[in-house]
Amino acid sequence: MSLVHEYERATNARDELPAHSWARHVDPGLVSTATDNDPSGVVTYSLAGAQFGYDMLWMCALSYPSMVAFQLVASSIAAQTGKGLTVNMREHYSRLLFYLAVGRFLVANVFNIAADVVAMGVGAQLLWHGSVPLFAAAFGILSIALQWFVPYARYARILKWLAASLFAYIGVTLVSHTSWRTLALHAFVPHITWRVDYFTMLLAVLGTTISPYLLFSQAEQQIEGDRPPTAGAKPLAGKRHLNKTRSDTLIRTVLSNAVGLFVMAAAASTLHASGHVLANADDAASVLRPLAGGYASHVLGLAFIGTALLALPPLAGSAANAAISARDGHAGRQRNRPVAHALLVVMALGVSIGVALTVMHIEPIRALYWSAVLNGSTATPVMVMLVLLSMKRSAVGDLSTHWTLRALCWLATLFAGAALTAEFACEWLF
Protein backbone atom coordinates (compact mmCIF):
# COMPACT_ATOMS: atom_id res chain seq x y z
CA MET A 1 0.00 0.00 0.00
CA SER A 2 1.16 3.54 0.79
CA LEU A 3 4.95 4.04 1.20
CA VAL A 4 6.15 6.18 4.09
CA HIS A 5 9.24 8.22 3.59
CA GLU A 6 12.62 7.61 5.14
CA TYR A 7 14.98 10.55 5.43
CA GLU A 8 17.69 10.77 2.83
CA ARG A 9 21.33 11.18 3.78
CA ALA A 10 22.04 14.81 4.61
CA THR A 11 24.31 16.78 2.33
CA ASN A 12 26.57 17.43 5.26
CA ALA A 13 27.52 13.89 6.26
CA ARG A 14 29.34 15.10 9.33
CA ASP A 15 26.23 16.58 10.88
CA GLU A 16 23.54 14.13 9.74
CA LEU A 17 22.94 10.43 10.31
CA PRO A 18 22.40 8.16 7.29
CA ALA A 19 18.60 8.07 7.21
CA HIS A 20 17.43 7.70 3.63
CA SER A 21 14.40 8.96 1.71
CA TRP A 22 12.71 6.47 -0.55
CA ALA A 23 9.11 7.59 -0.93
CA ARG A 24 10.07 10.10 -3.60
CA HIS A 25 12.41 7.72 -5.44
CA VAL A 26 10.15 4.67 -5.69
CA ASP A 27 6.84 4.64 -7.50
CA PRO A 28 4.18 4.20 -4.81
CA GLY A 29 2.71 1.22 -6.62
CA LEU A 30 6.03 -0.66 -6.90
CA VAL A 31 5.71 -2.70 -3.72
CA SER A 32 2.15 -1.86 -2.69
CA THR A 33 0.97 -5.45 -2.81
CA ALA A 34 3.75 -6.57 -0.47
CA THR A 35 3.56 -3.71 2.04
CA ASP A 36 -0.14 -4.23 2.68
CA ASN A 37 -0.11 -8.01 2.32
CA ASP A 38 2.81 -8.74 4.62
CA PRO A 39 3.03 -12.13 6.40
CA SER A 40 0.47 -10.99 8.97
CA GLY A 41 -1.96 -10.15 6.17
CA VAL A 42 -1.31 -13.37 4.24
CA VAL A 43 -1.89 -15.51 7.34
CA THR A 44 -5.00 -13.55 8.35
CA TYR A 45 -6.60 -13.88 4.92
CA SER A 46 -5.68 -17.57 4.84
CA LEU A 47 -7.20 -18.14 8.28
CA ALA A 48 -10.37 -16.30 7.26
CA GLY A 49 -10.75 -18.47 4.15
CA ALA A 50 -9.92 -21.70 5.99
CA GLN A 51 -12.35 -21.03 8.82
CA PHE A 52 -15.22 -19.22 7.11
CA GLY A 53 -14.84 -20.17 3.46
CA TYR A 54 -15.92 -17.41 1.12
CA ASP A 55 -18.03 -15.61 3.73
CA MET A 56 -15.50 -12.79 4.30
CA LEU A 57 -14.63 -12.00 0.71
CA TRP A 58 -16.92 -9.00 0.93
CA MET A 59 -14.46 -7.29 3.28
CA CYS A 60 -11.85 -7.09 0.52
CA ALA A 61 -14.27 -5.69 -2.05
CA LEU A 62 -16.49 -3.40 -0.01
CA SER A 63 -13.65 -1.89 2.04
CA TYR A 64 -11.98 -0.56 -1.10
CA PRO A 65 -13.84 2.79 -1.36
CA SER A 66 -13.27 3.59 2.31
CA MET A 67 -9.58 2.65 2.12
CA VAL A 68 -9.13 5.05 -0.76
CA ALA A 69 -11.13 7.76 1.01
CA PHE A 70 -9.09 7.59 4.23
CA GLN A 71 -5.78 7.75 2.38
CA LEU A 72 -6.93 10.71 0.29
CA VAL A 73 -8.14 12.55 3.38
CA ALA A 74 -4.80 11.90 5.11
CA SER A 75 -2.95 13.24 2.05
CA SER A 76 -5.20 16.29 1.83
CA ILE A 77 -4.67 17.20 5.48
CA ALA A 78 -0.90 16.92 5.07
CA ALA A 79 -0.95 18.97 1.86
CA GLN A 80 -3.02 21.77 3.44
CA THR A 81 -1.13 21.99 6.73
CA GLY A 82 2.37 20.86 5.80
CA LYS A 83 2.30 18.64 8.90
CA GLY A 84 1.86 14.94 9.55
CA LEU A 85 -1.19 13.42 11.20
CA THR A 86 0.54 13.07 14.56
CA VAL A 87 1.41 16.77 14.75
CA ASN A 88 -2.11 17.78 13.67
CA MET A 89 -3.72 15.48 16.23
CA ARG A 90 -1.42 16.74 18.98
CA GLU A 91 -2.40 20.35 18.24
CA HIS A 92 -6.16 19.81 18.09
CA TYR A 93 -7.03 17.09 20.61
CA SER A 94 -6.69 16.69 24.35
CA ARG A 95 -3.38 15.27 25.54
CA LEU A 96 -5.03 12.21 27.08
CA LEU A 97 -6.93 11.25 23.92
CA PHE A 98 -3.93 11.98 21.73
CA TYR A 99 -1.42 9.96 23.73
CA LEU A 100 -3.82 7.03 24.07
CA ALA A 101 -4.30 6.88 20.29
CA VAL A 102 -0.58 7.26 19.49
CA GLY A 103 0.37 4.80 22.23
CA ARG A 104 -1.95 2.14 20.83
CA PHE A 105 -0.59 2.83 17.36
CA LEU A 106 3.02 2.39 18.49
CA VAL A 107 2.23 -0.83 20.36
CA ALA A 108 0.42 -2.25 17.32
CA ASN A 109 3.30 -1.35 14.99
CA VAL A 110 5.98 -2.82 17.24
CA PHE A 111 4.02 -6.06 17.63
CA ASN A 112 3.42 -6.18 13.87
CA ILE A 113 7.18 -5.80 13.32
CA ALA A 114 7.81 -8.61 15.82
CA ALA A 115 5.31 -10.87 14.07
CA ASP A 116 6.89 -10.20 10.67
CA VAL A 117 10.32 -11.00 12.13
CA VAL A 118 8.90 -14.33 13.33
CA ALA A 119 7.51 -14.91 9.83
CA MET A 120 10.94 -14.31 8.26
CA GLY A 121 12.38 -16.94 10.58
CA VAL A 122 9.65 -19.38 9.60
CA GLY A 123 10.06 -18.53 5.92
CA ALA A 124 13.79 -19.22 6.08
CA GLN A 125 13.13 -22.48 7.91
CA LEU A 126 10.73 -23.54 5.15
CA LEU A 127 13.44 -22.84 2.57
CA TRP A 128 16.59 -24.11 4.24
CA HIS A 129 15.54 -25.84 7.48
CA GLY A 130 17.43 -24.97 10.64
CA SER A 131 16.75 -22.85 13.72
CA VAL A 132 13.80 -20.44 13.49
CA PRO A 133 15.15 -18.15 16.29
CA LEU A 134 18.53 -17.84 14.56
CA PHE A 135 16.91 -17.14 11.20
CA ALA A 136 14.57 -14.58 12.78
CA ALA A 137 17.48 -12.77 14.46
CA ALA A 138 19.56 -12.82 11.27
CA PHE A 139 16.81 -11.44 9.05
CA GLY A 140 15.81 -8.87 11.67
CA ILE A 141 19.38 -7.55 11.75
CA LEU A 142 19.47 -7.64 7.95
CA SER A 143 16.34 -5.49 7.80
CA ILE A 144 17.85 -2.93 10.19
CA ALA A 145 21.04 -2.80 8.12
CA LEU A 146 19.14 -2.37 4.86
CA GLN A 147 17.05 0.48 6.27
CA TRP A 148 20.12 2.20 7.68
CA PHE A 149 22.64 1.86 4.87
CA VAL A 150 20.81 1.11 1.60
CA PRO A 151 18.25 3.33 -0.15
CA TYR A 152 14.93 1.50 -0.29
CA ALA A 153 14.65 1.86 -4.06
CA ARG A 154 17.84 -0.11 -4.55
CA TYR A 155 16.86 -3.29 -2.75
CA ALA A 156 13.14 -3.01 -3.51
CA ARG A 157 13.95 -3.64 -7.16
CA ILE A 158 15.13 -7.11 -6.13
CA LEU A 159 12.77 -7.96 -3.29
CA LYS A 160 9.67 -7.10 -5.31
CA TRP A 161 10.23 -10.30 -7.27
CA LEU A 162 10.04 -12.35 -4.08
CA ALA A 163 6.76 -10.62 -3.28
CA ALA A 164 5.48 -11.66 -6.72
CA SER A 165 5.01 -15.12 -5.19
CA LEU A 166 1.78 -13.75 -3.72
CA PHE A 167 0.21 -13.99 -7.16
CA ALA A 168 0.44 -17.77 -6.82
CA TYR A 169 -2.79 -17.53 -4.81
CA ILE A 170 -4.57 -16.31 -7.94
CA GLY A 171 -3.29 -19.40 -9.74
CA VAL A 172 -4.57 -21.65 -6.94
CA THR A 173 -8.04 -20.13 -7.28
CA LEU A 174 -7.96 -20.73 -11.03
CA VAL A 175 -6.76 -24.34 -10.93
CA SER A 176 -9.26 -25.12 -8.16
CA HIS A 177 -12.04 -24.30 -10.64
CA THR A 178 -13.72 -21.96 -8.19
CA SER A 179 -17.00 -20.63 -9.53
CA TRP A 180 -16.67 -16.96 -10.53
CA ARG A 181 -20.33 -16.52 -9.73
CA THR A 182 -19.66 -17.75 -6.19
CA LEU A 183 -16.73 -15.35 -5.83
CA ALA A 184 -18.75 -12.40 -7.10
CA LEU A 185 -21.73 -13.21 -4.89
CA HIS A 186 -19.66 -13.47 -1.72
CA ALA A 187 -17.52 -10.47 -2.64
CA PHE A 188 -20.44 -8.05 -2.85
CA VAL A 189 -23.05 -9.58 -0.53
CA PRO A 190 -22.04 -9.50 3.15
CA HIS A 191 -22.57 -12.65 5.17
CA ILE A 192 -22.37 -12.14 8.93
CA THR A 193 -22.29 -14.89 11.57
CA TRP A 194 -23.06 -13.78 15.11
CA ARG A 195 -20.14 -15.50 16.81
CA VAL A 196 -17.25 -14.02 18.73
CA ASP A 197 -14.66 -15.77 16.55
CA TYR A 198 -16.29 -14.30 13.43
CA PHE A 199 -16.07 -10.73 14.73
CA THR A 200 -12.53 -11.26 15.99
CA MET A 201 -11.59 -12.42 12.51
CA LEU A 202 -13.43 -9.43 11.08
CA LEU A 203 -11.23 -7.12 13.18
CA ALA A 204 -8.14 -8.98 11.99
CA VAL A 205 -9.13 -8.59 8.33
CA LEU A 206 -9.90 -4.92 8.99
CA GLY A 207 -6.44 -4.58 10.52
CA THR A 208 -4.84 -5.80 7.30
CA THR A 209 -6.86 -3.47 5.07
CA ILE A 210 -7.39 -0.09 6.78
CA SER A 211 -4.21 -0.28 8.86
CA PRO A 212 -3.46 2.86 10.91
CA TYR A 213 0.17 2.94 9.76
CA LEU A 214 -1.00 3.32 6.16
CA LEU A 215 -2.76 6.56 7.05
CA PHE A 216 0.21 8.02 8.93
CA SER A 217 2.60 7.02 6.15
CA GLN A 218 0.33 8.47 3.46
CA ALA A 219 0.47 11.86 5.16
CA GLU A 220 4.25 11.70 5.58
CA GLN A 221 4.65 10.78 1.93
CA GLN A 222 2.58 13.82 0.94
CA ILE A 223 4.75 16.11 3.07
CA GLU A 224 7.90 14.64 1.55
CA GLY A 225 6.60 15.41 -1.93
CA ASP A 226 5.51 18.94 -0.98
CA ARG A 227 8.44 19.94 1.26
CA PRO A 228 9.60 23.51 0.56
CA PRO A 229 13.22 24.03 -0.40
CA THR A 230 13.98 26.37 2.48
CA ALA A 231 13.10 26.18 6.14
CA GLY A 232 11.27 29.52 6.13
CA ALA A 233 9.23 28.95 3.02
CA LYS A 234 5.50 28.48 3.15
CA PRO A 235 4.37 24.84 2.69
CA LEU A 236 3.43 24.16 -0.90
CA ALA A 237 -0.14 23.36 -1.85
CA GLY A 238 1.10 20.25 -3.61
CA LYS A 239 -1.79 20.08 -6.05
CA ARG A 240 0.22 18.19 -8.66
CA HIS A 241 1.57 15.73 -6.09
CA LEU A 242 -1.89 15.35 -4.56
CA ASN A 243 -3.36 14.47 -7.96
CA LYS A 244 -0.64 11.88 -8.51
CA THR A 245 -1.28 10.48 -5.03
CA ARG A 246 -4.97 10.15 -5.86
CA SER A 247 -4.34 8.09 -9.00
CA ASP A 248 -1.65 5.99 -7.31
CA THR A 249 -3.95 5.26 -4.38
CA LEU A 250 -6.77 4.09 -6.64
CA ILE A 251 -4.47 1.66 -8.48
CA ARG A 252 -2.42 0.21 -5.63
CA THR A 253 -5.47 -0.29 -3.42
CA VAL A 254 -7.09 -2.36 -6.17
CA LEU A 255 -3.95 -4.51 -6.41
CA SER A 256 -3.69 -4.95 -2.66
CA ASN A 257 -7.33 -5.84 -2.12
CA ALA A 258 -7.39 -8.17 -5.12
CA VAL A 259 -4.47 -10.19 -3.75
CA GLY A 260 -6.12 -10.33 -0.33
CA LEU A 261 -9.34 -11.56 -1.88
CA PHE A 262 -7.57 -14.32 -3.81
CA VAL A 263 -5.55 -15.42 -0.77
CA MET A 264 -8.81 -15.83 1.09
CA ALA A 265 -10.48 -17.56 -1.86
CA ALA A 266 -7.54 -19.96 -2.29
CA ALA A 267 -7.72 -20.99 1.38
CA ALA A 268 -11.48 -21.41 1.09
CA SER A 269 -11.19 -23.63 -1.99
CA THR A 270 -8.51 -25.83 -0.41
CA LEU A 271 -8.50 -25.99 3.39
CA HIS A 272 -12.14 -25.06 4.04
CA ALA A 273 -13.43 -27.26 1.22
CA SER A 274 -11.55 -30.28 2.59
CA GLY A 275 -12.44 -29.59 6.23
CA HIS A 276 -8.86 -28.87 7.31
CA VAL A 277 -7.82 -26.17 9.76
CA LEU A 278 -4.86 -23.82 9.48
CA ALA A 279 -2.76 -24.38 12.59
CA ASN A 280 0.85 -24.00 11.47
CA ALA A 281 3.11 -22.97 8.61
CA ASP A 282 2.79 -26.33 6.87
CA ASP A 283 -0.97 -25.88 6.74
CA ALA A 284 -0.49 -22.38 5.32
CA ALA A 285 1.82 -23.79 2.65
CA SER A 286 -0.71 -26.49 1.72
CA VAL A 287 -2.97 -23.77 0.32
CA LEU A 288 -0.44 -23.33 -2.51
CA ARG A 289 -0.01 -27.05 -3.18
CA PRO A 290 -2.61 -27.30 -6.01
CA LEU A 291 -0.42 -24.95 -8.04
CA ALA A 292 3.12 -25.31 -6.65
CA GLY A 293 3.03 -28.99 -5.72
CA GLY A 294 6.09 -30.02 -3.72
CA TYR A 295 7.47 -26.48 -3.91
CA ALA A 296 4.55 -24.97 -1.98
CA SER A 297 6.64 -24.49 1.18
CA HIS A 298 9.35 -22.76 -0.82
CA VAL A 299 6.87 -20.36 -2.42
CA LEU A 300 5.39 -19.48 0.97
CA GLY A 301 8.87 -19.04 2.45
CA LEU A 302 9.82 -16.60 -0.31
CA ALA A 303 6.54 -14.73 0.17
CA PHE A 304 7.11 -14.40 3.93
CA ILE A 305 10.68 -13.14 3.58
CA GLY A 306 10.07 -10.83 0.62
CA THR A 307 6.89 -9.19 1.93
CA ALA A 308 8.29 -8.78 5.45
CA LEU A 309 11.49 -7.08 4.28
CA LEU A 310 9.40 -4.72 2.14
CA ALA A 311 6.80 -4.02 4.84
CA LEU A 312 9.13 -3.46 7.80
CA PRO A 313 10.43 -0.02 6.65
CA PRO A 314 6.95 1.58 6.44
CA LEU A 315 5.95 -0.03 9.74
CA ALA A 316 9.07 1.18 11.54
CA GLY A 317 9.17 4.51 9.71
CA SER A 318 5.58 5.46 10.54
CA ALA A 319 6.10 4.48 14.18
CA ALA A 320 9.33 6.50 14.40
CA ASN A 321 7.69 9.55 12.83
CA ALA A 322 4.70 9.28 15.16
CA ALA A 323 6.92 8.99 18.23
CA ILE A 324 9.03 12.02 17.31
CA SER A 325 6.04 14.11 16.19
CA ALA A 326 4.30 13.38 19.48
CA ARG A 327 7.29 14.77 21.34
CA ASP A 328 8.28 17.86 19.35
CA GLY A 329 7.39 19.87 16.27
CA HIS A 330 10.68 19.73 14.39
CA ALA A 331 10.42 19.63 10.63
CA GLY A 332 12.73 19.07 7.68
CA ARG A 333 16.35 18.19 8.35
CA GLN A 334 15.96 18.86 12.05
CA ARG A 335 13.90 15.66 12.21
CA ASN A 336 16.51 13.46 10.53
CA ARG A 337 18.57 12.64 13.57
CA PRO A 338 15.73 11.96 16.10
CA VAL A 339 13.71 10.00 13.53
CA ALA A 340 16.77 7.90 12.67
CA HIS A 341 17.32 7.17 16.37
CA ALA A 342 13.63 6.37 16.91
CA LEU A 343 13.61 4.04 13.89
CA LEU A 344 16.54 2.10 15.34
CA VAL A 345 14.80 1.81 18.71
CA VAL A 346 11.52 0.65 17.16
CA MET A 347 13.23 -1.92 14.96
CA ALA A 348 15.48 -3.18 17.77
CA LEU A 349 12.47 -3.57 20.06
CA GLY A 350 10.41 -5.33 17.38
CA VAL A 351 13.24 -7.70 16.45
CA SER A 352 13.92 -8.50 20.13
CA ILE A 353 10.27 -9.31 20.79
CA GLY A 354 10.06 -11.38 17.61
CA VAL A 355 13.12 -13.46 18.50
CA ALA A 356 11.78 -13.89 22.04
CA LEU A 357 8.50 -15.23 20.65
CA THR A 358 10.37 -17.85 18.61
CA VAL A 359 12.50 -18.85 21.61
CA MET A 360 9.33 -19.32 23.67
CA HIS A 361 7.94 -21.48 20.82
CA ILE A 362 4.87 -19.28 20.36
CA GLU A 363 3.04 -20.61 17.30
CA PRO A 364 3.91 -18.17 14.45
CA ILE A 365 0.43 -18.38 12.96
CA ARG A 366 -1.08 -17.18 16.25
CA ALA A 367 1.43 -14.32 16.54
CA LEU A 368 0.72 -13.13 12.99
CA TYR A 369 -3.03 -13.39 13.44
CA TRP A 370 -3.13 -11.53 16.74
CA SER A 371 -0.95 -8.74 15.38
CA ALA A 372 -3.68 -8.21 12.77
CA VAL A 373 -6.37 -8.26 15.47
CA LEU A 374 -4.41 -5.62 17.42
CA ASN A 375 -4.16 -3.47 14.29
CA GLY A 376 -7.90 -3.79 13.73
CA SER A 377 -8.68 -2.84 17.33
CA THR A 378 -6.34 0.15 17.07
CA ALA A 379 -7.84 1.40 13.83
CA THR A 380 -11.12 2.70 15.28
CA PRO A 381 -9.82 5.55 17.52
CA VAL A 382 -7.35 6.67 14.83
CA MET A 383 -10.11 6.67 12.22
CA VAL A 384 -12.40 8.72 14.47
CA MET A 385 -9.69 11.31 15.15
CA LEU A 386 -8.77 11.54 11.47
CA VAL A 387 -12.29 12.04 10.15
CA LEU A 388 -13.03 14.65 12.84
CA LEU A 389 -9.76 16.37 12.06
CA SER A 390 -10.72 16.68 8.39
CA MET A 391 -13.79 18.69 9.48
CA LYS A 392 -11.95 21.12 11.77
CA ARG A 393 -11.42 24.50 10.12
CA SER A 394 -8.97 25.39 12.86
CA ALA A 395 -6.91 22.36 11.83
CA VAL A 396 -7.08 22.35 8.04
CA GLY A 397 -8.42 25.76 7.07
CA ASP A 398 -10.36 25.64 3.82
CA LEU A 399 -9.71 21.99 3.22
CA SER A 400 -12.16 20.98 0.50
CA THR A 401 -12.67 17.28 1.13
CA HIS A 402 -15.60 16.12 -0.95
CA TRP A 403 -18.64 15.03 1.02
CA THR A 404 -18.43 11.54 -0.50
CA LEU A 405 -14.96 11.05 0.99
CA ARG A 406 -16.18 12.13 4.41
CA ALA A 407 -19.21 9.85 4.11
CA LEU A 408 -17.06 6.86 3.19
CA CYS A 409 -14.72 7.59 6.09
CA TRP A 410 -17.61 7.81 8.53
CA LEU A 411 -19.11 4.62 7.14
CA ALA A 412 -15.86 2.69 7.65
CA THR A 413 -15.39 4.20 11.13
CA LEU A 414 -18.89 3.23 12.21
CA PHE A 415 -18.40 -0.27 10.82
CA ALA A 416 -15.08 -0.71 12.64
CA GLY A 417 -16.64 0.50 15.88
CA ALA A 418 -19.63 -1.80 15.38
CA ALA A 419 -17.35 -4.81 14.75
CA LEU A 420 -15.40 -4.07 17.92
CA THR A 421 -18.62 -3.64 19.93
CA ALA A 422 -20.14 -6.80 18.45
CA GLU A 423 -17.07 -8.82 19.42
CA PHE A 424 -17.36 -7.75 23.05
CA ALA A 425 -21.13 -8.25 23.02
CA CYS A 426 -20.86 -11.78 21.62
CA GLU A 427 -18.15 -12.65 24.11
CA TRP A 428 -20.29 -11.58 27.06
CA LEU A 429 -23.72 -12.65 25.85
CA PHE A 430 -23.10 -15.97 24.11
TrEMBL record:
A single Gene Ontology MF term assigned here is: symporter activity
| Spans through the membrane | 56-75, 96-114, 126-146, 158-178, 198-216, 254-275, 295-317, 338-362, 368-391, 403-422
Q: Which GO BP terms, alphabetically?
A: iron ion transmembrane transport
Task: Kindly state which keywords UniProt assigns to this record, in alphabetical order.
Answer: Membrane, Symport, Transmembrane, Transmembrane helix, Transport
Its subcellular locations are:
Membrane
Q: What's in the GO CC field? A: plasma membrane
Its domain of life? Bacteria
UniProt cross-references to Pfam families, sorted A to Z:
Nramp
The membrane topology of this protein is: Multi-pass membrane protein
Q: Does the keyword ATP-binding apply?
A: no
Protein's name in the database: Mn2+/Fe2+ NRAMP family transporter
Origin species: Paraburkholderia bryophila
